[in-house]
Every structure is written in structure tokens, then in C-alpha cells.
Amino acid sequence: xxxxxLLFFISLLTLPSxxxxxxxxxxxxxxxxxxxxxxxxxxxxxxxxxxxxxxLNDDGAEEWVVWDINSRQLTVFEKSGEEFIHQPEWAYYFPxxxxxxxxxxxxxxxxxxxxxxxxxxxxxxxxxxxxGNSISFELAQDFLPxxxxxxxxxxxxxxxxxxDLDGDGDLDLVIFNFASGDYLEFYENTSVDRSGSxxxxxxxxxxxxWGLFEICACGDISFGQTCAGIDxxxxxxxxxxxxxxxxxxxxxxxxxxxxxxxxxxGRDECDILYFLPNKGTETDPLFEEFSTSLPSLGALxxxxxxxxxxxxxxxxxxxxxxNEAAAIYGVDFAQSIFRFDGMSTPILxxxxxxxxxxxxxxxxxxxxxxxxxxxxxxxxxxxxxxxILEFDFQNGAFEEKDxxxxxxxxGLSEVQYLEYTDQTGRVQxxxxxxxxxxxxxxxxxxxxxxxxxxxLELSGYQPNRGDYLSLFNYQDEDYLLVxxxxxxxxxxxxxxxxxxxxxxxxxxxxxxxxxxxxNLAVAVYQKEDPGLYTIDQGGILTYxxxxxxxxxxxxxxxxxxxxxxxxxxxxxxxxxxxxDVLGGKPDLILGTxxxxxxxxxxxxxxxxPSEGIQLIIYPNxxxxxVKVISNQSGTGRIVNALGQVILSDISLExxxxxxxxxxxxxxxxxxxxxxxxxxxxxxxxxxVR
Length: 689
Known about the structure:
The protein is an all-beta fold. Helix content is 2%, strand content 44%. Strands 3-2-30-29-28-27 form a 6-stranded mixed beta sheet. The chain has a 4-stranded antiparallel beta sheet with strand order 1-47-46-45, with no helix packed on it. The chain is elongated.
């Protein structure tokens, strides 16, 4: 963790700030984890997957569209055999307001699956208007209506059943009762009956207690009567009191081979799916028993809580569908999607970078090399605590180096790792996180001293739960930004010699307590006039240039297909920067609530590159090899303090780092002289220890 040299190198960059550029998704930078190169490392991770399939590029094969209700991320994977290839740009062609659930089904029989999602008024529908490989959706219904025009209410934690049940060509609807009981209601689509064409412009009044059963509790289902013992054949009067407002998942498929669909149900508080064989018909089902086993497949797997079944290409896929934090039920979100064929086999997540929950990245170095530290909530034997994973970044690839499981001994979750060289030149290695003390969550700070994490107190700063810290230097002074969970931002000056902080400004830059801007995170772009990247639960990334002097915010843009889009990130995102070695715009690595990472690569600047020569040598002083990089190609040589040529004909390519072995040089002063291809020249001194 030697950051002093790297931060000293970064401080050499004194180029003026350029205008903010857009970013593109990086899918090519390799990540090697557990001796395996991941096929889709930058997909952002997955906590609770609602998986749907759709052909988006008109190649005849369906992609996996994953809506994560927990992290509020939509991801798209193109499938090639058993390999999943993340296509982050495609998600930006979907509607922005996906919420609660996601169902893809063709409502107008045009051969293209349309989109259904939750809205405050019930179920919202978008028509798939894609043409060829051009993806687009248009609003079809702001809510699904009854024939009288009133809206059909649906719980946004449910995944409704939307399919043609009566065989007339239009999509019918089955949902759990929204208000007064834990039972199903069937809504027949009347569009074909009314107009002869399939649509979603009207549904009949519901058939209540569809299938004649009620769920009373996990493992307790009442058949033929309500949970209160009332005979369902006499249509009992509804109880206005809400019985169960939690979520459900529904899969209606034939599992016992009799040609009639059966039910496979999930419930939010339950740890297993329930199989209900159908003794009736497709449209008028009758359920009289349940089990936790499937015919020919055997006993269903258990999860800590709520999960979702989906049948894809004949395979039963079971995934977590919990909207809760991992610690509440001890969920292992790093292993939350399985293919079940009698045995549970991980699928998809073994090809992405997914550490569990709430990955906070911290990078030291630049775009040519460095170290990446990832802290995350990791579940082991049902206990959720923070761990740190370290990667080396060299030759354009991230390679797993070490995993620090020992920090679990501190009893922390929501861990953030920081490393900072203060104005005195001392490296401060800090760790923050939440520890429960007497069932009360407390935010704590630790400092690495003699290879031991020791609790640290900064006088003048009282940590609050969820604080996210960012240290930076401005005009030779050390500062601390504290981004609060409530959306506020405070600025402190900090003195590590006396372990003291002084509050300079609350609600800094206009960031203040606001329910709409919870989960604020910031990252400083360290330069002479530092910049600031910010994000909150809204998922929109912003940038403030020269933020110590002005507070104007600019939305960061994502370039897709020649157009710019504001970011659509999840409800928790954390940012770290990969500086450009020659002073260009940094790349960004974003950590997510879903335990993964997203890599945003700075687009080419619209500002012409500087015509002046830039030459950087580091580390300086050096005990061994030195690295040389220039913005212009040319030929260099090294001379000693006496003017003697030590090494000549050193070929440099613009923007490419060159390592020169210097460990065998006599300690002392040396000079690197570069003559560019356009006959300009520059010299830089460096010292060998």
C-alpha cells in the first residue's frame, strides 16, 4: 500500500482543468479473479434478479434482461452458448421508470415482447417499437384498466402473472389481492372479445380466490377455505383489513406432465418455493395441496428469504427477490442465482464480479498501473461483515492479489478503505464502518498502525451512521469531505499530527438533508483546482469543477450510439478515480449496492491536446526501476551529473509508459533528455537512491 510515491507523481500534474467530457462504458479491461478471467466483470453485480428474456438485436436469440429490485439496476446480457456478455448500452434504451417488477410479454401479437412494470396506479405498460436491432419502447398504458376505466391495483413487491390463460390471443392477468387477503385474483382480458384484436385496454372484474386457496403463513396454505375457516365456495365477504402487504412471485407452468399448468409460488417472508399441483383446468384451476418438491426434480432449494422462479429455455432458474439488506436475513447476494435440475448450480454470477453487497472501491495509481481496493459486505455462514479485496492493475488488466478477511474481526459492515498522503508526507491508512454495540449501530474509524487496525478519534468530528469520507489537499492544506446518508455534505479542515478536524461549512455546495437525495457519495478529482464527482440514490452522476471556488453542477453524460444520456445508476453508488498520467480526464470505477463494479472510460476530449512537451519520470527518487512517459514520441537518453551518457537510443511512444532498469546505477542525480520526432527537446532530473 505504498501511496506516497503515486500521490507525489499525481501532484506533478499541473495542467489547467479542461471542460468536462462524457464517458463510455468500458467492457474490454480484463479482471482476473480466483485464476479466472471473467467474461462480464463490469456489469455492476446482482442482488435480487427478476430475469426476463427478449430478442433485442433481432438475431433470433433472446438476451437476459435482469431487473434487480434490491439495487434498482437494469442489466442486459447477450448469451453466447454458456457465456454471458454484458451489454450496458442496451439498458439505456429501456424506459427510465422501471420500478418494483419487470415482466416482458407480447400483448399485441406482433412478435415483439412488450414491457410491464409497477406504477403508483397499478401496472404500467410499454409497447416494444423496436425495428431490426434498433431498440425502443413507447408508453402504451399508464395503467392497466378495468372495463369501466378504473385502474387495477397491484403490489409493487409482487411479480404478476401476465400470460394468455384462456387461449383467445390476449394477455390475461393474475395478481395477489392488493389489500385484504393473501390470495390470487384473475382478470380476464376482454380486448379480443370487444374488438377482435389483442390489446391491454380493458379487463373484466376479477375472479377472487382464483384456485380456491389462501396463504396463511410460510408453510401454511388453506385450501377450499379462508385462513379464518370460511368456505370459499360461498364467496366470503372481503375483510377490509390488510392481511399481507409483502411480495410474491408466481410461475404458472406444467410440472407434473398432465398438460395443465401448476403453480410455483414464492412469498417474501418464506425461505422456500411452494409447488401447488393443479387439479382443475388452465383458466379455472383447483389447488388442494402443496409441497416443497417438484416432480422429477426433487426437493426445492432453500434460501434465507424470498426468491423468484423463472423457466428459461427449459431450465428452472431460481433467484433471490429480496428488497432487504443482506444482514437482516443473512443473505449471500454473491450467490443468489441458480439453475435447478435437482441440484443447484450457480449461473451468470460466476461470470461477473460480484462480492456480495455494497462494494466501495478505492484506487491508487493512474490509468497505466496501480492498486484497486474493494470493500464489501460479505456473507460467510450467515454472518454479514466487511472484507477487502486487493487487485493489482498492470498492462491494462486487474489481477486479484489478496483478500483481507481478517478485518471481519473488527465486527464492521459497510466498510470504506482510504489511503491518503497528508501535507507532511505521511501516509494515512484509514478504515471506516458500522459496528453494532449493544444493538445500536455506531460508525467507527480505524487507523493502520504497525500493521494493526487501531480505533481512531478525530476531535471536532463525530462520525454518523453511513458517513462516506473523502480526503484531499488544497493549497497545501488537508481537508475532509463528509457525505452523509441523508444527502448532506460537510467540509472540514484536518490535522493528522494532532488528530483534529475543524468544521468549516455544513451543507457544503448546497448538498443538504433531503429525502430525495439520500445515500450521497463523493470523490475528489485531485488537481490544482480540484473537481468533485457526486452521486446519490437518484443514480445521476454530477461533476463540479474547481469546487473550492464555485458550486455549479454539471450532469455527467454517457455516450451511446453517438448520443449523450445522463447516468442511470442504482440507489447506492460509490466512486473512485483512475487519473490520466498526462493530465487528461480520469476514468471512473463505480461500486454498487449489488456488490459489483462499473467502469466508465473518459471519452476523447473536445479540447485540442497541448502542443507543449510533457515528460514525467516516477518514482522520483527511485530505489530501482523508473517509469517514463511523454505526450510526444521521440528518442531519449540518460546522462549522469558529470554529463556522461549512461543509456542512449531510448525509444518513447506518445502516451505509452516505459520502464527503465536503474537499480544498478550508482546512487545520485541523473537526467533524462528527450528529443521528440518534431525536434523539440526536454530534460528532467531524477535521483537514484
